[in-house]
Specification:
The structure is a single chain. The protein is an all-alpha fold. It is 67% helix and 0% strand. It contains 5 helices and no strands. Helix 3 (57-74) runs antiparallel to helix 4 (82-109) and helix 3 (57-74) crosses helix 5 (111-149). The relative contact order is 0.05.
Length: 169
C-alpha cells in the first residue's frame, strides 16, 4: 500500500494523458422550466375542457352589454304592426347605442374599478351567506330545544308515554 491519496477523475485522466472528465452542463432553471411547462399544459387542458377563462370584470361587462344589445335588436314584437315595428327597432337601436356610448368610456378609463367592485360583491355575498347560515343554525337549535321541552325527543325516559316522570319518594 502506498501513502498516496487517490486522485480525482480529472487528475487521473490528465495523468494518463487522456482528456479530463467533464461533468455535463446542467440547467439551473430546469425545475422552474418543467413547472412552467406543466402549468401551461394544465391551463390548456382546462381551456379545452371548460372553455376560455372569464376575463376581467370590465371585459365581462362589455360582453354583457354587447349580448343585451344584440338580443334587444333582434326582438320583434307581434303586437306592433309592420310600420310600428320598424320604428320600435330604430328606437331600441338608438337606446342601445347611447348606453354603449355611456358605458365604453367608463370601462376604458377605469377597468380596475370593475375588478374591485366584483371583489366587493363577492365579499358582500359571503357575508350575507354567513349571516343566513348562522341564523338558520339558531332557528334549528331553538326548534330542537323546544321539541325536547315538550317531550318530542323519543330517546329519553323509561315510560311508554310522553308524560313527565314523577318521583313519588
Amino acid at each position: 500500500m502506498s501513502e498516496e491519496r487517490p486522485t480525482s477523475d480529472t487528475a487521473r485522466g490528465e495523468a494518463a494523458g487522456e482528456a479530463p472528465f467533464e461533468t455535463p452542463a446542467t440547467d439551473s432553471d430546469a425545475w422552474a422550466k418543467a413547472c412552467a411547462e406543466d402549468l401551461e399544459a394544465e391551463k390548456a387542458r382546462r381551456r379545452a375542457q371548460h372553455g376560455p377563462p372569464p376575463g376581467s370584470a370590465a371585459e365581462e361587462l362589455r360582453k354583457l352589454v354587447d349580448a343585451v344589445s344584440d338580443k334587444l335588436s333582434s326582438l320583434q314584437s307581434p303586437l306592433l304592426g309592420a310600420v310600428a315595428q320598424g320604428t320600435a327597432q330604430q328606437v331600441v337601436r338608438q337606446v342601445v347605442q347611447q348606453a354603449k356610448a355611456a358605458v365604453e368610456p367608463v370601462i376604458e378609463r377605469n377597468p380596475d374599478v370593475f375588478d374591485h367592485l366584483a371583489a366587493a360583491g363577492n365579499e358582500l355575498f359571503a357575508a350575507y351567506r354567513s349571516a343566513v347560515e348562522s341564523q338558520e343554525r339558531r332557528w334549528t337549535t331553538r326548534e330542537a330545544d323546544r321539541g325536547r321541552k315538550h317531550g318530542d325527543d323519543r330517546g329519553e325516559g323509561t315510560g311508554s308515554g310522553s308524560g313527565e316522570r314523577i318521583d313519588l319518594d
